[in-house]
Amino acid sequence: MLINIQQKDLAESLQLVSRAIPSKTPLSELEGVLLTGDGEKLSLFATNLEMGLKTELDIEHKAGSVVLPGKIVEIIRRLPGETVVLKVNTENFLTEITSGTAEFQVFGLNAADYPSFPAFSSECSIRFSVKSEDLRRVLKQTIFSVSQEDLSPAFTGILFTLSEKDLQLASSDTFRLAVTSCPVKNRGEKGSFLVPARTLQEVIRVFPASEEEIQVAVLQNQLLLNCNNIYFSSRLLTEKYPDVKRVIPQKFVGRAVVETAAMLQAIERAAILSAGENNIVSFTIADNIMHVRASSKYGIIQEKIPVALEGEEVKVSLNSRFVLDMLRIVEGNNCVLELTGSDSPVIIRDNLHQDYLYLVLPIKL
């Protein structure tokens, strides 16, 4: 294998796939990056067996393959020349790397021992496409409300539900629930699958915020994504997810519209003095005013925010962190609060994305 490539291109590609290199693993080959070339296209792939990332570069080279240790990412990034030459000894996989005045010899491994990236094929049970910016948005709207506790594995994932026209995402840690959706291009397929939130964090990082289409497929127990020579795979969770529709209230005693920035800033201030591990902040909504109050051994804060209220007065205490998590990703100028009564769940909506629902359970004092 012999490659002559721009240092910048190789460094960027290695940086992308290196996100899937495990920090600890008993399998030595997984500590590196698989480079595979057919003479015209160079593929770089890394996996931790839960998640995989692959990218491809169009470049003429002498075909071959090798697994290079994770140190290759830093080596290539720091090379002094504009171009890099990699020469792999096919007998022992010793790889010579030269660039400018620098010359490295890196001990590679046999690529035959490295897992392969699952391919899009006719065997995929589900296939559709979605705009990259739409997928990133719905992930940001749900990913923060998953459980951080492995005791309930289903709640560490995000539930994807595909219909003929849209894709719905739902997440919960049992104290709150986020549900949203986005349009898709679909051949009429339907289905649902549960994806670990920790792998989906990388989807937000590696795919661009653009109108580019991401191709999506489910192959056995794997989710596959592909857009502009970036390939992503994630294992699926097998746990059963509860029916989220059952916990969403259908009747409300009031509805309040409030400026997003005003509510966010007021709760951030109140959170400074919120009490206990539940970060308790109390809200009283009446006479077109939202009273925000928090107290602890350090002091008391009270603040008033104007709202447009329709319906009954409501008093409720919430975890301020839960509310702030949602408000910080709201894109609309206003939020809509759907009120179910004192000491009852509160639903918060982004006025720019009305299909986005965020439910927070109250803290009973």
What features would you describe in this structure?
Helix 3 packs across helix 4 (197-206). A twelve-stranded antiparallel β-sheet has the order 14-10-11-12-25-24-23-18-21-20-19-22. The protein has a nine-stranded antiparallel β-sheet with strand order 5-2-3-4-17-16-15-9-13. It contains six helices and 25 strands. The model has no long low-confidence stretch (mean pLDDT 95). It has helices at 7-17, 72-77, 132-142, 197-206, 260-271, 320-327; strands at 2-6, 32-37, 41-47, 51-58, 64-69, 83-88, 94-99, 102-107, 126-131, 157-162, 166-172, 176-183, 185-186, 191-196, 213-219, 222-227, 230-235, 254-259, 280-286, 289-296, 299-311, 314-319, 334-339, 346-350, 353-360. The relative contact order is 0.11. The protein folds into three domains: 2-113, Roll (DNA Polymerase III, Chain A, domain 2), CATH 3.10.150.10; 126-245, DNA Polymerase III, Chain A, domain 2 (Roll); 250-360, DNA Polymerase III, Chain A, domain 2. With 365 residues, the protein is of the alpha+beta class.
**At the first level of CATH, what is the class of the largest domain?**
Alpha Beta
Looking at the overall shape, the CATH architecture of the largest domain is Roll
Strand-residue fraction?
35-45%
| CATH evolutionary superfamily of the largest domain | DNA Polymerase III, subunit A, domain 2
Beta strand count: 25
CATH topology name of the largest domain: DNA Polymerase III, Chain A, domain 2
Structural class: alpha+beta
Chart the SSEs and their pairings.
Blueprint: E1 2-6, H1 7-17, E2 32-37, E3 41-47, E4 51-58, E5 64-69, H2 72-77, E6 83-88, E7 94-99, E8 102-107, E9 126-131, H3 132-142, E10 157-162, E11 166-172, E12 176-183, E13 185-186, E14 191-196, H4 197-206, E15 213-219, E16 222-227, E17 230-235, E18 254-259, H5 260-271, E19 280-286, E20 289-296, E21 299-311, E22 314-319, H6 320-327, E23 334-339, E24 346-350, E25 353-360
Antiparallel strand pairs: 1-6, 2-3, 2-5, 3-4, 4-17, 6-7, 7-8, 9-13, 9-15, 10-11, 10-14, 11-12, 12-25, 15-16, 16-17, 18-21, 18-23, 19-20, 19-22, 20-21, 23-24, 24-25
Helix pairs in contact: 3-4, 5-6
